[in-house]
Design goal:
alpha+beta; Jelly Rolls; TIM Barrel; six-stranded parallel sheet; EC 3.2.1.25; glycosidase; Ig-like_fold; secreted
Length: about 800
Amino acid sequence: MSLSVEKDGTSEEDWIPASVPGTVHQALLDANRIPDPFQGTNENEIQWIGERDWLYRCSFTLIDDVQAAEHVVLQFEGLDTYATVWLNGMEIARSTNMFVPLHVEVTNLLHPGQNELLINFESALRLGQALEAQHGKHVSWNGDSSRLYVRKAQYHYGWDWGPVLLTAGPWRTISLLAYKSRIVDVLSQTEVSPDLESALLSVTTDIELGGTDPANVSCSVSVYDSQNTLVGEQELPGTALELLPDHGQYRLQAKLQLVQPQLWWPRGYGAQPLYRLVVTLHDEQGSPLDQREVRTGLRRLELSQHPFSDQPGNSFFFTINNTPIFCGGANWIPADSLTTRISPERYRAWVQLAADANMAMLRVWGGGIYEEDVFYDACDELGILVWQDFMFACGMYPALDWFQASVRAEAEAAIGRLHHHPSIALWCGNNEDYMVASSQGHYDAAFEGDFTAIQFSARELYERVLPEVCARLDPSRPYWRGSPYGGTNGNNPEVGDQHVWDVWHGFMRKYQDYSSLGGRFISEFGMQATPGRSTIEAFSSAEERYPLSRTLEHHNKASDGSRRLAVYLSDTVRNPADLDSYIYATQLVQSEALCSGIRGWRRQWQGLGKEYIGGALVWQINDCWPVTSWAMVDYYLRPKPAYYSVRRELAPIAVGLATHDKQHAAVWAINATRQPLDVHLALQWWTLEGELIDEQDHAYTLAPNQATELQTAPFATTTGHVLSARLLQEDQVLARATIWPEPFKYLTLPEPGIHVERLGPDTLSLQTQRPAKGVWLTAEDGVKWSDNMLDLLPGESYIVKAEGLKDDSVVHVDWLRA
């Protein structure tokens, strides 16, 4: 039966409890009205949810302080997505963008005693399709194309790693704010001097005074360093307030000069001290009327793009505090399809995983959300730089007047909330939209006229609307039009950043080709792998636990994911028959592929004027549900083998090996520290049967913050020998690498004779009689391994810490078998 919103809102039938923040899906799950969409193929059974409208209602009673306040504002920090709000039967607000908060004055609409709030969430799918029918269908990759008209998290429409779960609901907090006078907003900008000896902190504060005379208030701006010592303060009288006629608010400007600032550094380059900025509004007696506190960091940030003297194109890398940074890291997607389920603890665990993997950067991908504050707080604290996309992905978006206005409000809200985080290194217009336009022949870089009149009308957003907002609200941070973007080319290998998808997508090049495919900054590349058995068991029934089952294929959202995986498996290893062998094989291939890319691209970071590749970001670190995907860590925060391999490749000290020609291998080393490093290079050649054929030792000095080419070494893939390289200081091994004959499927590998010895409660020693490829250790959930996915060679003990390993735990050992 169909009811009007008014009748439905007052009906007492069929309501269920719902949490705020929350989504319809979560409320239905909690009430046992729907099956878990992550289980089996249940996703298919609940698509009706996104096709319907949903009502939320609540009753609340005013406390005396709120009832007596001069002003009361009802604050909606995020409504997903098309929502109409009524308070006590009167419509007070409409939302059409889940990323734009709504703050509504309700002082004269509140009742003494009980008040009723009602929100109608209309189907984003239905309304989006109506807009598409009215204004025209645009090209998109992934999801229903009507999403391009809807300012909603685009991954909710399904992606090639995520399910279609079209959520609705109050996805961020709803609250009442009662006040007489208040601080509306604080915008802070920091500028560190070129010599790093001082910093200028500029603070813009917007204030609402109600009927209070500005002469009767004052404002103080205080800055405290990481030891909570007051290092700067400015007292400003109310007469310094500037009236903003369009807003009925006042604005206050303050500038504080800080000497010898404690600089914020990316992880591995220095500490991450954070300052507190406190803005307090006082009445004429000096009592506080309102206070805002912001945490920030001081660092000098540049996006360095200079021409090379010996190669075509320009560099693309980040310089922090006058130090060039190679940004190894990963892409980040929302960590749950039901976004509100991600707890602060889970956010911090994810960012800690990135930090523990030696990552310098996470890229917040443009088809998700502007993440919760705790995500950026964790990045600030752990020294992880953030490449922040605006929320546009894989499509040719419209640029209608109302759409532009919505995007402008969205950008203002995002920048206003996030700009003070020192971790954010870049605002980026979109994900792959220039690639989509180029693929359709609709990108002409030379055209600078009316963008709204051309097919690629979204250039109005990326080249005018968004850069204007960034320049106005956050001028010290660089803006980049898209990822990838390279001027005349939507994916230019010589300028800007590049998505390297000729491996996996496109021509399905061999992953060994990565080093020849690199651009100036690799912002996406990747290889799929299944999650581990425990994760597969969490979403599948026993009869579906075999390679290529219906359930496993449903949990691979790439339309041809199984077929492409099969190609890379057949190129690399012998065909796996059972589930465990299939899991291991896909994970080995992912591990080898990602390391091939990072190793080769990091080699191109060669010092001043030769920063040929400035970063490599794996697609992707995380998942939004349990799935076969490109993630290095699955939905349950269980690392795949590639996580550990990538961690070694991104270590401050690393050694690299790659075939140079049919008879030789190149050897190089990375020193990401800021000091020269004296090392010994130990080379060994082993047969697969465990015979040491030869060994050499050479001394080198590694230049700081760059790769150093060391030598070439004899290595013929046809001989079936394994070449090992170790960097040592005295007897301490700083880094290891091996190179094996490839493809592995041609090798006849004897049983390696691996021995695991327990040296203590959480310490293991691994030895082997013969070379062992891809040694993978597992135990129960919760064990944190210091290293894993190892290549073991005879004559050496490999010490692995296993934090959380129980006394009676059984350690399982797997490796590449013949």
